[in-house]
Amino acid sequence: MNNFANVEKIVGYSFKNKKLLENAFVHSSYANETGKESNERLEFLGDSVLELICTEELFAAFDGTEGKLTKYRASLVSENALSFVVDELKLHEYLLRGKGERKKAPTSAEKCDLYEAIIGALYLDGGYEVAKKFFDKTHGELISKLKTDGYTDNAKNALQEMLPKERITYSTTKHGEDHSPIYKSTVIINGVNMGYGEGTNKRTAEQKAAQNTINMIKKA
């Protein structure tokens, strides 16, 4: 049985309706096996709430054109960005999935859906400001990066653009069981090991390694 008290600690909010919190973590495969309601309706709601929150935050933070703000919003609420947040908070470990699904790691799309469902549940249980507080917790640093040096949800491309003439490769290895793998990646630039990253899939690990390498270069 999942310990949703831990989830409340991670999210930073104590739900009045505990069933609403649990519902946010019910994958459709688990719903089919148990007769519980899946998190798809909460995901649908959360998607709209998330877009409004993100739009409001960007409107307040930037004077840019509509096109620029739309691009920023798309990057902040993209599947890659939301999946990354769920990975960082380890919220996917509490996702309720069917027996067949539990044999493999959650996909980026499932993690993205989970984040949106959590936003939906927070909005229903605590209102707009509670949902916004969670968004600020997970996206505040990303918005700060937008203000200072821009942001891309593809750190590998950004790294290559920073060092167009350098030979950049990735040493990525898989560890753990097949149903719960951990990928470890190191960026290698001209034979020298640089940034390191871990993730539940190869792409996430390499993106983290690339971003850490970018951070190292900027601090040098």
Radius of gyration: 18 Å
Residues in β-strands, percent: 5-15%
Number of H/I helices: 10
Q: Which strand order spans the largest sheet, edge to edge or round the barrel?
A: 1-2-3
Instruction: Return residue spans where pLDDT drops below 50 for at least 5 consecutive residues.
Output: none
Q: Provide the CATH architecture of the largest domain.
A: Orthogonal Bundle
Task: Characterize the structure shown.
By secondary structure, this protein is mostly helical. The chain has two domains: 4-149, Orthogonal Bundle (Ribonuclease iii, N-terminal Endonuclease Domain, Chain A), CATH 1.10.1520; 155-219, Double Stranded RNA Binding Domain (2-Layer Sandwich), CATH 3.30.160.20. Helices cover 60% and strands 11% of the residues. It is built from ten helices and three strands. It has a three-stranded antiparallel β-sheet, with helices on one face. A hairpin with a 6-residue loop joins strand 1 and strand 2 (182-189). Helix 4 (40-61) crosses helix 8 (128-149) and helix 9 (155-162) runs parallel beside helix 10 (202-219). The longest helix has 22 residues, at 40-61. The model has no long low-confidence stretch (mean pLDDT 90).
